[in-house]
Amino acid sequence: MTTIVAETKEPPSSSSQAPSLRERICEVLKPTQEQWDDWKWHFRNRFNTVDKLAKVLPLTESQKRQLKLVSLKFPFSITPYYLSLIRTGDPYDPILLQSVPSFEELLNTDMGQPDPLHERVDSPVPGLVHRYPDRALFVITDICPLLCRHCTRKREWEGESWWIRTKPQLEAAIDYLRKTTAIRDVIISGGDPLTVDNAGLEWVLAQLRSISHIEIIRFGTRFPVVLPQRIDEGFCRIIDKYGPVWLNTHFNHPNEVTPEAARAVRELLRAGVPVNNQTVLLRGINDSVEIQLALSHALLKNRVRPYYLFHGDEVSGTEHLRTPVETGLKIIEGMRGHTSGLGVPTYVVDVAGGGGKIPLQPNYVLSWSEDEITLRNFEWKTFHYRNPRPTGPRPISVLAGV
Ligand code: SF4
After folding, report:
1. Which of 285, 320, 252, 263 is nearest to 39 (CA)?
2. d(C-alpha 279, C-alpha 286), whole Å
3. Residue 248 structural domain
4. What distance in angstroms lies between residue 231's CA and the mean position of ligand 1's atoms?
5. Annotated catalytic residue: which of 151, 165, 192, 322?
6. Residue 344: inside a domain
7. 0.85 cut: is pTM over it?
């Protein structure tokens, strides 16, 4: 086994002589290539204390004090892989801002809520959120390899009491799904459900597949972004076996679309799994048309569909990362017409109080009458569109009665 020689994919830092962050991480952790390619190694070696982080990032004493203070309330955890994507020397780096705590998390906490989406209220049994009539969210763990600073479920980090649901808890949730025949679509979520090993996931998938009214199974996971090594042969084999399985992931910035992430996506597609992306709109990270277009194009090149652009939820400890709603609308306005419809995600606000996702888009309808709609296009050119008023009976085939 050989220790990894620096094989960095990041731009050189300010001094071309200075080691890259990936080199520094490898100097400290000394992984072999085999270990670097193994998701369990990354998971075990997560950076989750200030002292460990200070071994690879040049933190001042004041920065260390601030980080320690924030992480008492909101802990952090960063995989070596994801940390290696940070461009050192740039305080606005999008990977840094999503992964390393900021003192602002402790400010304005009264402006958010621990559970704005009322997931706990909408849980008929622990671990199952049933809000929409035909689908349910199956939360099988609260563990994530990366603790994203904008996370909607930050409340779960309290006291760092990490859990994976026990078999009796999973069985209770599956029993509810079995009895609720209206549910045709189940999203396996977390935390991040892929922190559960392949044997555990296979058990869950087999149980869900034994319920005849469940047509679609989806995974909600950020592993392809923060620890793409997790998408291994074993995982692809089981999702192929229990298909149709879809996977929603969570790229927020084009810098996250690395060769490693692209490989993970390729493997998922080969296993017959459509991959959709759910971006969260984040202030200072991806709140511009240019970044969102670059992200969409990077995703489309890898056959990932930009599915949703979520407005940042009203979560305690995330106010500094939220933007005005107008920002999201302006982004969609700037994307529509400037790239294909495939590249424009649906912008949604998940309203506090458990009202669910509400889609928002710029207004293209200038006026409306019974016979005519006045529309404007992406260039603000105005068009009058005849509004069809069908008359006569419903169309019938000439082959009627054959
Ligand atoms: S992966 Fe998802 S659930 Fe986990 S910390 Fe990030 S946003 Fe939260």
Report:
1. 263
2. 9
3. 112-360
4. 17
5. 151
6. yes
7. yes
